Amino acid sequence: MLIPLPDIMLEPVVRATLLEDLGRAGDITTDAIVPPDHRSRLALGARQDGVVAGLDLARIAFRLMDPDIDMIVHRPDGALVRAGEAIATLSGPTRGLLTAERTALNLLCRLSGIATATAGLVDAVRGHRASIVCTRKTTPGLRALEKYAVRAGGGGNHRFGLDDAILIKDNHVAIAGGIRPALQRARNHAGHMVKIELEVDSLDQLREAMEIGVDAVLLDNMGPEMLAEGVSIIAGRAISEASGRITPQTAPAIAASGVDLISCGWITHSAAILDIGFDHLD
């Protein structure tokens, strides 16, 4: 079940985005053309197939511009939508509707694009044990929202920041003088609730890590055959994660190796938007 983010988390982002658009004088185009008492009904409509995410952000954008705007959702976050299908219908004062339009669409299209990209990878590995997870390669200031969009697309989340798990990467290992001292320092520093993951790029590194013990292993830039051997070495003693330039085309073979997780940065940093329009009904 997709659990929505609370409005208290969303509103500061939406408010800042609206203020950026309103600038110093507000929407001078709409204010010049549309009478103050004019009312309209418009639809948020999909212009291509995809998965919806970010409707609460759109709702807040319209509400902040005018609390008299009503929004009826037809296809909620996490739902598959087809081109030409209405996602939501809005009605109320026209000035507020038009002024909030771009902020609402920017956020909705962005998150829906991430959800759609995630869903494509989830479909690609269906039938295997592997789950699709995102990374910290997110838009600054939008991480919680983009990770929510990944969940809307059927994926899961890797760590949210530097403070919720230890991930030892190649530079950490090099500076520490090897895998063993890096893991020992991490174990001495971590609290009992903190998981420790180690990135490896060879099976020799993996064998050393498994001798010492670790909660999870990130198998970086390995092909399917090497990943399968790595999974055999781990033998259920740690969570196995594959990463490195994974696409919907390469994901099935990677998932078939038996890894637990497939992490992808591009689903948040490079996903194309889902094209959604805002069309006048009456």
TrEMBL record:
GO terms for biological process: NAD+ biosynthetic process; quinolinate catabolic process. The keyword Glycosyltransferase applies. Transmembrane segments: none annotated. InterPro entries: Aldolase_TIM (IPR013785), NadC (IPR004393), NadC/ModD (IPR027277), Nicotinate_pribotase-like_C (IPR036068), Quinolinate_PRibosylTase_N_sf (IPR037128), Quinolinate_PRibosylTrfase_C (IPR002638), Quinolinate_PRibosylTrfase_N (IPR022412). It holds the Pfam family QRPTase_N. Residues 114-278 form the Quinolinate phosphoribosyl transferase C-terminal domain. It comes from the Bacteria. It is an enzyme of class 2 (transferase). Its EC number is 2.4.2.19. Keywords: Glycosyltransferase, Pyridine nucleotide biosynthesis, Transferase. One of its GO terms (cellular component) is cytoplasm. Residues 27-112 form the Quinolinate phosphoribosyl transferase N-terminal domain. One of its GO terms (molecular function) is nicotinate-nucleotide diphosphorylase (carboxylating) activity. Pathway: Cofactor biosynthesis; NAD(+) biosynthesis; nicotinate D-ribonucleotide from quinolinate: step 1/1. It catalyses: nicotinate beta-D-ribonucleotide + CO2 + diphosphate = quinolinate + 5-phospho-alpha-D-ribose 1-diphosphate + 2 H(+). The keyword Transferase applies. Gene3D superfamilies: Aldolase class I (3.20.20.70), Quinolinate phosphoribosyl transferase, N-terminal domain (3.90.1170.20). PANTHER family: NICOTINATE-NUCLEOTIDE PYROPHOSPHORYLASE [CARBOXYLATING]. Belongs to the NadC/ModD family. Involved in the catabolism of quinolinic acid (QA). Hexamer formed by 3 homodimers. This is Probable nicotinate-nucleotide pyrophosphorylase [carboxylating]. The lineage of its organism: Bacteria, Pseudomonadati, Pseudomonadota, Alphaproteobacteria, Hyphomicrobiales.
